[in-house]
Input
Amino acid sequence: HSHFFSSTTTMSFLLRAAAKQLRSFSAAAKHVPTELTKLTDADLMHLINTGKLSPYSLEASLGDCTRAVSLRRQYLAQCIEQEGRRSSTAPVLEKLPYSQFDADGFYKSVDGTNCEAVIGYVPVPVGVVGPLLLDGHPVRVPLATTEGALVASTNRGCRAITLSGGARSVILSNGMTRAPLVRFPSMAEAASLKAWLGVPENASKVAEAFNSTTRFGKLQSVGARVAGRNIYIRFACNCGDAMGMNMVTKGTVAALEVICEAFPNAKLISLSGNVCSDKKPAAVNWIEGRGRSVACEVVLSKAVVEKTLKTNVQDLLDLNVNKNLVGSAMSGSLGGFNAHASNIVSALFLATGNDIAQNVESSTCITLMERDGENLHMSVTMPSVEVGTVGGGTTLPAQSSCLDLMGCAGANRTLVGAHADQLARVVAATVLAGELSLMAALASGDLLESHMKLNRRKD
Output
């Protein structure tokens, strides 16, 4: 667009005119400031960087959705480079398509690994929230979703958390599980295997066999549950940066060989006996955890609650108790003591290539709020976040690019498991942001208005 500028004076005039129109431009207006459309990308980036043009409303400001996406990517790349939190040296979002799509390359990347009998692909828009200050570092989080208002709402939660000094997270435990079903001729024999597994010497033999199948995995624990002649043996394994289902299954097979040697009457009925428990609501995951158990907290200042979230501490406290705790108890919820953790987990899993079906257990979460002086202490505890940064869909170009955006693509060569740990922390922190913003919208009565504005097609 450089042909629009015949001199420095003309360029300065257009910049000033565009900035003036931006100040008076209403988001509800039907027209687009003509001066903005005449500016080069470099000039528009200047307006964004000086706070005169919002990167979150470029579509409305420019009237050109593709250009808006391009500019937002440029701005995001600039922020990421400045923050220095990436896991690769490739250009930011290089492999996340936004205009041209390499269909042939995509089909080759999924062949034999991710899908069979392919007939096409389903485009899902990817938005970004942040910066979210987590454990002292800013994070930009990609969310793939078709639910209008989700990204905008979660971004408001990120802003409130960051303005309050940021969130802190902790990994409480780590162990992907597999629980094969073994049957004996009698209940007594099944019970004797349970007792045998509790002997340290026997447990060491089982662990040695299990660990011999992997360089990165390490058996954490073995538990057993007896039901009649059936015994369900639950193996839990630290799987490094992988989500780990294949890894723990291979180890389980090796461990079962040791067990069957000691118990010739044992008969393997199924490698999965549903006590794992994978892709199903289960109290065992809620109580004992599966994958990474992670918690995240923030202390929100009274001023931020009132100015950014448009509500007050007491109303949030009352709502959380009566909705997320009492309401969930009245519904008989299993691990659902939250407002909408599943929304965030699903969007993050889709963006990063993690198994979307594992959203079932990964979204179990309890959201707590307490008064901290005049401020608000808020936390989420998620006992079974099942994520990986290697293997499966995480290796696809676009999904890998989204992981790189958060600085956790692929395997961490220095500290095994650190990238998947980081992703689990980001999941919890983004859930915290999403919970905060939705609860504030409910407390203030803004929820319906937001959805009518952002989740309705404009004809």
Residues 1-11, 24-30 have pLDDT under 50 and may be disordered.
